[in-house]
Design brief:
With 517 residues, the protein is of the alpha/beta class. The protein folds into 3 domains: 5-279, TIM Barrel (Alpha-Beta Barrel); 297-386, no CATH class; 394-449, 2-Layer Sandwich (Double Stranded RNA Binding Domain), CATH 3.30.160.740. Helices cover 40% and strands 20% of the residues. It contains 18 helices and 16 strands. The strands form 4 sheets. An 8-stranded parallel beta barrel has the order 1-2-3-4-5-6-7-8, surrounded by 10 helices. The protein has a 3-stranded antiparallel beta sheet with strand order 11-12-13. It starts with a strand and ends with a helix.
């Protein structure tokens, strides 16, 4: 076992992911979360290339980070510049970070055909840049760009680029699989040969996921002797992304016995993963290993039966170690035992006979298009109804939605008539679309009886067409996520009428809030 440092580049390399754009405020928030997680180095951006990154390096100094060191990223000097006059190197120094990372070409093809300089000149650029930064008191990491492609094409020259950086004082030499196409057995062979030739500097690994083996490549490099892993949270990055640090960190700690972060810090892994997705305004990937919502979710009856007896029977690590949890899903694959386990989780006494009847109802509902694994609040209401623990909050008399399209204005109005505690309430509301109008009208009718509903907010609304071949007559499933500031819950509705399906999900959302124990 050897110490492994985690180098996060979510704020630079990860921000190159399609659809991702971080503000300075976003980057500072993520920096704080990464520090809590125990990340050793946080690459904040490329100073001198845009005002946002320059501002980040000014503002990050004001944060009281416990362990993480901000890192400024840049390139080697330009071919025609002296290191002391190079604008890029000056910007790196002005960023005022203890550590800087510069990348340089290690593939002879890139040197001559892309950079357009001689192989000798490239070595001079690397050495001069590292040496100059060292003279300014900086700790320097050297990212050997396209190293694996370069090594396979010309191993002698690729090694010379590392030697140029090491002899100039680079503290760590990072082997970059920039194109992401190297295979694990190639990484193992190349890393072994590199480590045999490195004198003082440590060796790191930076992999991309174009071959879908970025995590395997990073772990292979560590197994051979690499002591730094560069990557991003959730694998954000250009093209197919960078190596996913969530998987790397969990595997190093739980599979390879490398305590790169503390066990208490590891418990924050899922929360940090979710936070970065939220800030990036991207959905959190449910089936992401270790930290995904489905990573420890069990659906099949046989699996549920086994995992309740011994979690290790279908879980490769204890979910709580990475801040996750075990989940039992209910679907038409479920058995009676699954429902009984689920009832116990909800604190509901479910007799065996009621469980069998409920199972039959669940299977019928799913046949109709309902899906309860993503709408557990609706399922909990079904379970309460099956055990007579459900209290209806109102009875629907009728509702109507009118959508008016005009040359100068659009208008959507919903009218709702319900009975609450024996009293008939008739309300109307104008909304931004039919579902919003219906939601507003229903709340208006109920709020005087149930003031607590003022806390409930609709967080997400999704519609899925279930029978696309039926065209506009297709059946749809509506999933609604609601919250009250303390927790969130999901409900479902299904119908050929999207308004009716939405109504079902809205009613379940309100009923769940009012029937919550």
């Amino acid at each position: 076992m050897h110490h492994v440092e985690i180098y996060d580049t979510t704020l630079r390399d990860g921000a190159q992911s399609e659809g991702v754009s971080f503000s300075v405020h976003d980057k500072l928030l993520i920096t704080q979360k990464l520090d809590i997680l125990g990340i050793h180095y946080i690459e904040g951006g490329w100073p001198g290339t845009n005002p946002k990154d320059d501002l980040y390096f000014e503002e990050v100094k004001k944060l009281h980070l416990k362990s993480a060191k901000p890192v400024a990223f840049g390139a080697t000097r330009r071919a025609n510049n002296r290191a002391s006059d190079d604008p890029n190197l000056k910007a790196l120094i002005a960023a005022d970070t203890e550590v800087v990372t510069i990348f340089g070409k290690s593939w002879d093809f890139h040197v001559t055909e892309v950079l357009g300089v001689s192989l000798k000149k490239n070595l001079e650029m690397i050495a001069d840049s590292v040496s100059y930064l060292r003279s300014k008191g900086k700790r320097v990491f050297f990212d050997a760009e396209h190293f694996f492609d370069g090594f396979l094409a010309s191993p002698g020259y690729a090694i010379k680029t590392l030697q140029a950086a090491e002899s100039a004082g680079a503290a760590c030499l990072i082997l970059c699989d920039t194109n992401g196409g190297t295979m694990p057995w190639q990484v193992e062979d190349v890393c072994r040969r590199v480590l045999e030739g490195v004198d003082k500097a440590s060796v790191g690994i930076h992999t991309h996921n174009d071959g879908d083996v970025a995590v395997a490549n990073a772990l292979t490099a560590v197994r051979v002797g690499a002591t730094q892993v560069q990557g991003t949270i959730n694998g954000f990055g250009e093209r197919c992304g960078n190596v996913n640090l969530c998987s790397v960190i969990a595997a190093l700690n739980l599979k390879m016995n490398h305590k790169c972060i503390g066990s208490d810090q590891l418990k924050h892994l899922r929360a940090v993963s979710q936070f970065v997705s939220e800030v990036a305004n991207l959905p959190h990937v449910k089936n992401q290993p270790y930290v995904g919502e489905s990573a420890f979710a069990h659906k099949g009856g046989v699996h549920v039966h086994a995992v309740q007896k011994a979690s290790a029977s279908y879980e490769h690590v204890p979910p709580q170690k990475v801040g996750n949890r075990q989940r039992v899903l209910v679907s038409d694959y479920s058995g009676t035992r699954t429902l009984l386990e689920k009832a116990q989780l909800y604190g509901i006494a479910l007799p065996a006979e009621a469980a069998r009847a409920l199972l039959k109802a669940v299977k019928e509902k799913e046949h109709q298009g309902y899906q309860f694994e993503g709408a557990e609040a609706s399922f909990e209401l079904m379970m309460k109804k099956a055990t007579h623990q459900y209290k209806p909050s109102f009875d629907l008399i009728r509702f109507r939605v009118v959508v008016e399209k005009g040359a100068e204005h659009d208008r959507t109005e919903a009218t709702v008539e319900v009975k609450v505690n024996g009293r008939i309430q008739h309300t109307a509301a104008v909304g931004n679309g039919p579902v919003n109008a219906l939601d507003q009208a229903l709340r208006r009718a109920l709020i005087k009886f149930y003031p607590v509903l003022s806390e409930v907010k609709l967080i997400d609304y999704k519609v899925r067409v279930l029978t696309a071949s039926d065209g506009t007559e297709a059946k749809v499933r509506v999933l609604i996520e609601s919250g009250d500031g303390r927790r969130t819950w999901q409900t479902v509705g299904v119908s050929h009428n999207v308004i009716e399906a939405s109504w079902q999900a809205l009613v379940d959302s309100i009923d769940y809030k009012l029937n919550a124990f």
